[in-house]
């Protein structure tokens, strides 16, 4: 008997602080594991499969992304499925929407643009409740210099130095549409420091740890450990500069995934 398959997109958001990233792993709790368990319960163990638009590292949060859901044999009643999914997901994971798609759609290969945000503060130790949302740097940072450094990442470059353990076949060339550091007015709370900052990065594709390696280099720039010329040299792949400073994951948020029409 030929299998009949139905195709859906789940728009999803989650706080990543208590998870070991998206992808299922043995003996640790991940977002994919919790979403799969919830869908299995809601669908009463019907056959299904999930593919995410991208993976996140441990403690990284997501404001909005997509997951493709394949369901065998019977179509979903979306009006019933959507509220049941949210009722049964853990409180730090939420579905924003569920829509139907077709077998021709492929969440991995479909052109998309991603925006990442990295939140940080420095000098004055902040309230412990900030820990899931931003990173504290104990040294003073030259923010104006870091703003100059962030702009160097914009445009087309070879990001070999910002690709984690690249292989000879790894495609490291890419284009960053926007990269800037600004004062944070995106997320606020009465326990946040009076002043915090956010690195905003937007582009079509990023390698594993790329944003965190960029942020680590900008932290080193702000601390006076490297120069603007050093950042320029890392964007020339012929130099093969291996970067070591991967900024902490808890300040990173995948803010938005846009699917090209």
- Per CATH, what is the topology of the largest domain? Alpha-Beta Plaits
Overall pLDDT score: 92
Top-tier CATH class of the largest domain = Alpha Beta
The total domain count is: 2
Beta-strand percent range: 25-35%
Give the overall shape: globular
Under the CATH scheme, the architecture of the largest domain is 2-Layer Sandwich
Radius of gyration: 20 Å
Tell me the distance between the termini.
35 Å
Q: What letter string, H or E per element, gives the SSE order?
A: EHEEHEEEHEEEHHE
Helicity, as a percent range: 10-25%
What is the CATH superfamily classification of the largest domain?
Pseudouridine synthase I, catalytic domain, C-terminal subdomain
Assign the structural class, choosing from mainly alpha, mainly beta, alpha/beta, alpha+beta, or little secondary structure. alpha+beta
Low-pLDDT runs of 5+ residues are none
Number of helices: 5
Helices and strands, with pairings:
Elements: E1 5-14, H1 31-42, E2 48-52, E3 61-72, H2 78-88, E4 93-101, E5 112-122, E6 135-137, H3 143-151, E7 155-158, E8 173-183, E9 197-203, H4 210-222, H5 228-234, E10 252-259
Parallel strand pairs: 3-10, 5-6
Antiparallel strand pairs: 1-3, 1-4, 2-3, 5-9, 5-10, 7-8, 8-9
Helix pairs in contact: 1-2, 3-4
Please provide a brief summary of the model.
This protein has five helices and ten strands, in the order βαββαβββαβββααβ. By secondary structure, it is an alpha+beta fold.
């Amino acid at each position: 008997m030929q299998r009949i398959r139905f195709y859906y997109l789940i728009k999803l958001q989650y706080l990543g602080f208590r998870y070991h990233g998206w992808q299922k792993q043995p003996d640790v709790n991940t977002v994919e594991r919790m979403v799969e368990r919830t869908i299995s319960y809601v669908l009463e163990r019907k056959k299904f499969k999930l593919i995410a638009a991208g993976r996140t590292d441990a403690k990284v949060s997501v404001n909005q992304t997509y997951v493709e859901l394949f369901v065998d044999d019977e179509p979903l009643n979306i009006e019933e499925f959507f509220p049941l999914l949210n009722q049964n997901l853990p409180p730090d994971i939420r579905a924003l929407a569920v829509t139907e798609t077709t077998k021709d759609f492929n969440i991995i290969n479909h052109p998309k643009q991603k925006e990442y945000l990295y939140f940080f503060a420095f000098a004055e130790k902040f309230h412990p409740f900030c820990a899931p949302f931003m990173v504290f740097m104990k040294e003073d940072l030259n923010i104006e210099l870091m703003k100059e450094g962030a702009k160097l990442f914009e445009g087309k470059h070879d990001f070999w130095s910002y690709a984690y353990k690249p292989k000879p076949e790894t495609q490291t060339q890419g284009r960053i549409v926007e990269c800037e550091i600004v004062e944070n007015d995106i997320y606020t709370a009465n326990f946040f420091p009076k002043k915090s900052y956010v690195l905003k990065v937007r582009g079509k594709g990023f390698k594993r740890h790329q944003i965190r390696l960029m942020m680590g280099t900008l932290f080193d720039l702000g601390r006076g450990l490297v120069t603007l010329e050093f950042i320029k040299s890392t964007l020339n792949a012929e130099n093969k500069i291996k970067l070591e400073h991967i900024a902490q994951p808890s300040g990173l948020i995948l803010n938005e995934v846009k699917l090209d029409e």
